[in-house]
Amino acid sequence: MEIIGYIMALLIGLSLGVIGGGGSILAVPVLAYMFSLDEKIATAYSLFIVGIVALIGGIEQHKRKNVDWRTSLIFGLPAIMGVWITRHFIIPELPNVLFTIGELDFTRRMGMFGLFSLLMLWAAYAMLSKDKRKGGTGFVKYNYKLILLEGLLVGSITGFVGAGGGFLIIPALVILANLEIKKAIGTSLVIIAFKSLLGFFLGDALTMAIDWNFLLIFSGLAAIGIFTGIYIGRFIDGRKLEKGFGYFIILMATCVFTMEFIIKI
């Protein structure tokens, strides 16, 4: 299972390199089920992995002048606050059993992975949508109040489930900052990188023991995957792959929900 898990690390990076997203949402189930990590460690490690691969993608987008740094700062700061508050203060204090209904104990793991499976379905819907993503006019303007709220919300969700949340950030940048779609994608990668890495280092790295050897190997394989994906993405139809990957995410979401709420491993 661990060998398959390391292969999946390559595929996570590969998908990010080819289609620009989606792969990082697989990090949590891979860490939880193939390496038998508990929900707190799996979501923590996922933040680091997501941050590293997003940083690589963000640097590549910066070279193509597809990053609006002012917007990344305005949106990113409240997102970083949301991740930090969630990982440093909320997650460590959550009890193993959140609440009980009759004889059913609704555990912390069920809450975190249940929300995660719903977000996976949302991400799959975004990838399978027939409507082409449209961007703003490029004349940047900010709705500061909504950006603050959206940033805090996305950051909190990221902190809770360990996913980057690009499928939440990109529409927000288009709607709330009027960014063109290419700049929204590039800017979102920078935001994801900083909020994920800072959330990890200011939260989990201070409250739990980290297996750096494993984490760096897994992240290194994902990084190899993203560089490979960027290269082969020049020769294949990324949109067709995106649809196929969307169906794969639905399958993974179904497996996560089944294992946590029906089989109850």
Structure description:
There is one protein chain. This protein is mainly α and 265 residues long. The chain has one domain. The protein is built from 10 helices and 2 strands. It has a two-stranded antiparallel ribbon. Helix 6 runs antiparallel to helix 7 and helix 7 crosses helix 8. The protein is globular and about 55 Å long. The protein starts with a helix and ends with a helix.
SSE topology sketch:
Layout: H1 2-19, H2 27-34, H3 39-63, H4 69-90, E1 97-101, E2 104-107, H5 108-128, H6 144-161, H7 166-177, H8 181-207, H9 212-232, H10 238-263
- Return the domain count: 1
How many β-strands, per DSSP? 2
Q: In what order do the strands lie side by side in the largest sheet?
A: 1-2
| Arithmetic mean pLDDT | 85
Oligomeric state as shown: single chain
Outline the low-pLDDT stretches.
Answer: none
SSE class: mainly alpha
What does the radius of gyration come to?
Answer: 18 Å
Indicate the proportion of strand residues. under 5%
How do the helices and strands follow one another from N- to C-terminus?
HHHHEEHHHHHH
**Major sheet description:** 2 strands, antiparallel
Query: What is the rounded distance between the termini?
Result: 16 Å
Count of helical stretches: 10
Helical fraction: over 70%
Shape summary: globular
